[in-house]
TrEMBL record:
InterPro entries: ATPase_NBD, ROK. GO terms for molecular function: kinase activity. Gene3D superfamilies: 3.30.420.40. It comes from the Bacteria. SUPFAM superfamilies: Actin-like ATPase domain. Keywords: Kinase, Transferase. Belongs to the ROK (NagC/XylR) family. Coiled coil: none annotated. This is Beta-glucoside kinase.
């Protein structure tokens, strides 16, 4: 059976693994994203690839990453989370370094591919897959087809303005800046007077919120912002489902609390759609990247 090295690149973590041709993850791991310069970023990818080459016969390298991706050339045209790779032909660089074919696609689209392949959207013609992490990305299927848009920007839902544009909320106008895990962690650090560079996981915020009403209010506001974006997407595209992936999908109470906030929106019943988790949760990017590789 053919095997692939898959990467799911995020602004905070890079997940990697070996995935076979039917979507099984044979092994996986992760490391902290190091993007202080392009050379360091590429070297980290190469190290993982070279380590796997000693154990597996690698058919290809499949990469999921945030931003506006020209999948034809494997180039991130815009990458809000990792600026050093903007305009860089990742596909070409890694193919020359490894001698193995490389394919690159947007993380939201890869998550959608995974769910369409063998997840919770196998029978769906119209659905939206959201990845909630350092930012918010999206993959959109309409009439059974993935929507990429005129210049690969379809699904860049994190740029939706869902909080108004006012002086008092400067910096938190768009969805990625008011409903991502990165945003929640930054608000938490600010409230507690912690160093912005301190490495804190989102799980800590939710845990401390149980004992601090101010942090709980912060978490509630985060859920509210997330629900507003989902409401807007449901009203605009009328999907059969909205599926949510990323690290947050591992929280047992996440989906129930999100649904409560959606139900608190006066007009939710008018635009209602099923909201569920990605079957593959935090593995969707790895599986979807391989699906894209095999079908591009």
């Amino acid at each position: 059976m053919k095997t692939y090295v898959a990467f799911d690149v995020g602004g905070t973590k890079v997940k990697f693994g070996i995935v076979d041709e039917v979507g099984n993850i044979l092994e996986k791991g992760q490391y902290n994203t190091r993007a202080e310069n392009l050379e360091r970023f590429i070297k980290d990818l190469e190290d993982i690839i070279n380590s796997y080459k000693r154990t597996y016969k690698i058919e290809g390298i499949a990469i999921s990453m945030p931003g506006v991706i020209d999948y034809r050339t494997g180039t991130p045209l815009v990458c809000y989370s990792i600026r050093v790779i903007e305009g860089v032909g990742i596909k070409d660089l890694l193919e020359k370094a490894t001698g193995i074919r490389v394919e690159v696609e947007n993380d939201g689209r890869c998550a959608a591919f995974a769910e369409k392949f063998n997840g919770n959207a196998v029978d769906c013609e119209d659905f939206i897959c959201l990845t909630v992490g350092t930012g918010i990305g999206g993959g959109i299927f309409l009439n059974g087809k993935l929507i990429r848009g005129h210049n690969f920007k379809a699904g860049e839902v994190g740029y939706m303005i869902n909080n108004g544009i006012r002086e008092e909320n400067k910096g938190s106008e768009i969805w990625s800046n008011n409903a991502s895990i990165r945003t929640l962690v930054l608000k938490y650090k600010e409230y507690r007077g912690l160093d912005k560079e301190l490495n804190i996981e989102g799980t800590e915020v939710f845990s401390v919120a149980k004992f601090d009403k101010n942090i709980q209010a912060m978490v509630d506001k985060w859920y509210k912002n997330l629900s507003y974006g989902i409401f807007n997407l449901s009203a605009s595209l009328n999907p059969q489902k909205v599926l949510i992936g990323g690290g947050i999908s591992n929280r047992e109470d996440f989906l129930d609390k999100l649904k409560l906030h959606l139900e608190n929106i006066e007009w939710w019943n008018e635009v209602y759609t099923t909201v569920d988790l990605c079957k593959h949760k935090n593995d969707a990017g790895l599986i979807g990247a391989v699906y894209h590789f095999r079908n591009v």
